[in-house]
Amino acid sequence: MTKVIAIANQKGGVGKTTTAINLAASLAALEYRTLIVDADPQANSTSGVGLNPREVEHSIYECMVDGVDVYDAITKTDIEYLHILPSHIDLVGAEVEMVNIERREERMKDSLKKAKKDYDYIIIDCSPSLGLITINALTASDSVIIPVQCEYFALEGLGKLLNTIKIIQTRLNKALEIEGILLTMYDVRLRLSNQVVEEVQTHFKKIVFDTIIPRNIKLSESPSFGVPAIAHDAESKGAVSYLNLAKEILVKNGKS
Fold first, then answer.
1. In what order do the strands lie in the sheet with 75-76?
2. Contacts of residue 165, Cβ cutoff 8 Å, sequence gap at least 6
């Protein structure tokens, strides 16, 4: 059974793309066939695994808007077991173009249906908004991971996201679950980081992952090399943390 996981939070700069790339790469390193779907017009997941978004011939945009076959868009990466369905700046206009399309909230689900048989995990990197593309991603997913950074405005907007998830569960995808809340950008030296961890764990209890992602220079550096952290420096704290997250998800899903 393929598990489709969206990485979503309408707040920018919380580590969505870092999580999508490094979780997917960690699952691939553990020899699970994994596909990243870059559903963000900024295309950072695309460039983060070594592709130039400007040179992408077919992307998630063409699959959703023009009905292009998903296999014409999926591309291999340099990491075995890891493929990507890339994004392109054109995705910015997709929400407007899809307004009059029938079942517009289910275009991504329809596009991915054919590919599901070839992957154990599909990780969707959502854009920092609650627009139609993110709604498509949540409709196509089995579960959602919500990255929350260990900073002052950590919980800002989280209620709005949880409300959107509830609406999607009611109207579009009854099976959607919250895989977990992931604490990111943790700095052990900062009292504020520790306060945020305590607050989130107290408030959300069991849905918070045990794994916490630290601030780490290797995580920040690796996108400029076009590789996930595990390929840049497998022993760095960031790479090890995402490997631990992958293992925690596998245990939670009875795969390990």
1. 75-76, 82-85, 34-39, 121-126, 3-7, 143-149, 177-186, 208-214
2. 138, 144, 176, 178
Structure tokens at 182: 């992931």
Report d(CA 133, CA 38) in Å as an integer. Answer: 11
Written as six digits, the tokens of 151 are: 């900073």
User: What is the chain's percent helix, strand, coil content, to nearest 5?
Assistant: 50, 20, 35
Q: Please state the rounded mean pLDDT for residues 127-133.
A: 88
As a whole number of angstroms, the distance between CA 6 and CA 40 comes to 12
E strand map for the chain: 3-7, 34-39, 75-76, 82-85, 121-126, 143-149, 177-186, 208-214
Predicted pLDDT at 234? 85
Contact 138, 10 (CB under 8 A): no
Q: Are 83 and 73 in contact (CB under 8 A)?
A: no
Asked if 9 and 128 touch (Cβ cutoff 8 Å), the reply is yes
**pLDDT score of 75 more than 90:** yes
Strand, coil or helix: 176: coil
Taking CA atoms, 201 is separated from 23, 33, 234, in Å, by 21, 31, 28
The alpha-carbon radius of gyration of the chain (Å, integer) is 17
Question: Whole-model pTM above 0.85?
Answer: yes
Return the closest-CA partner of residue 219 out of 230, 209, 211, 210.
Answer: 230
| Distance, CA of 238 to CA of 218 (rounded, Å) | 7
Report yes or no: 5 and 122 within 8 Å, Cβ to Cβ: yes
- Are the beta carbons of 15 and 151 closer than 8 angstroms? no
Q: What is the largest CA-CA distance in the chain?
A: 51
